[in-house]
């Protein structure tokens, strides 16, 4: 046989082998191709090798060299195909979680989350106060000094306006001409916003975030939530305030909820009280309340001779922590699923 003929045969063989290995889609098909080309007894490579004997004597070294190169190339093509098939198999197995895919097994349930405990609490509080006729209102978290202080009867010299007690925004306000802006320190701002827009009677709650530069510890955090209530009507009294808070405590904590007032001071209420709630025989301070100060009513354009009202502000984290036995307020904000999934 002439060298050229032998070399052409080798070339055809390599071409066929590479195509067959590349086309093999799984281990079984690849094994069949391996036997066809590389089979020890009657593989096609073996058959071509037999032809080497018939090559002219002078051409034998060249033919042998070429044969070895093709043999190597076929082996390489086979190894590559083997790796590819193996990789595909483990990828599929990995996706299915096991080597065998059993389509009769039940599917894996998707892990469902749920509302954050504070969000649940806010919804509960809205629901309870809704039953008492209070509609939810909201206001901005970035406030001007009028709504956070001035209209609430907190004069410029009041210690609550100390820049160290507030998160003032460095740049905002100057551009819009609204004066300094700050993160609201209390939801009482919403009282003002609602009364400015609505003639009496008013019966609202407002729930949301408030911000104070407190160092975080078990009972303090620079951001927390308040629920604010406001009722304005003719002849609203402190007894109404107490009834509403008592009903609130009973509904939220269950039959054992009691409340207690302690005299206090807020610039925007007169008289003012601290509100304690008892649950499981312990008193805990939940916030402040009082009769809306006539100066506040006048600031929003109401006639203090015509209408009166009460307001209260409670800490959402406080009532929630009390009810669910949460001992560290920081747990609410850590986003640790082990904590959150308990509720
Ligand atoms: N705004 C007060 C606070 O944040 C609470 C309060 C609200 C007191 C309404 C009286 C009336 O401490």
Descriptive terms for the model:
343 residues, alpha+beta, BirA Bifunctional Protein, domain 2, 41% helix, rod-shaped
What is the element layout, followed by pairings?
Blueprint: H1 3-23, H2 27-38, H3 44-51, H4 60-96, H5 117-131, E1 135-137, E2 142-144, H6 145-148, E3 181-183, H7 188-197, E4 202-211, E5 223-233, H8 238-253, E6 258-266, E7 269-279, E8 282-292, H9 294-299, E9 308-315, H10 316-324, H11 337-340
Parallel strand pairs: 1-4
Antiparallel strand pairs: 2-3, 4-5, 5-9, 6-7, 7-8, 8-9
Helix pairs in contact: 1-2, 1-3, 1-4, 2-4
This protein binds phenylalanine.
Phenylalanine binds next to strand 8 and strand 9.
Task: Summarize this structure briefly.
This protein is an alpha+beta fold and 343 residues long. It is built from 11 helices and 9 strands.
Task: Describe the fold and architecture.
The protein has 343 residues and is of the alpha+beta class. The protein folds into two domains: 3-100; 117-340, Bira Bifunctional Protein, Domain 2 (BirA Bifunctional Protein, domain 2, 2-Layer Sandwich), CATH 3.30.930. Helices cover 41% and strands 20% of the residues. It has eleven helices and nine strands. It has helices spanning 3-23, 27-38, 44-51, 60-96, 117-131, 145-148, 188-197, 238-253, 294-299, 316-324, 337-340, and strands spanning 135-137, 142-144, 181-183, 202-211, 223-233, 258-266, 269-279, 282-292, 308-315. The strands form two sheets. A seven-stranded mixed sheet has the order 1-4-5-9-8-7-6. It has a two-stranded antiparallel sheet with strand order 2-3. Strand 7 and strand 8 (282-292) form a beta hairpin. Helix 1 packs antiparallel against helix 2, helix 1 (3-23) runs antiparallel to helix 3 and helix 2 runs antiparallel to helix 4. The chain is rod-shaped, with a radius of gyration of 40 Å. Bound molecules: phenylalanine.
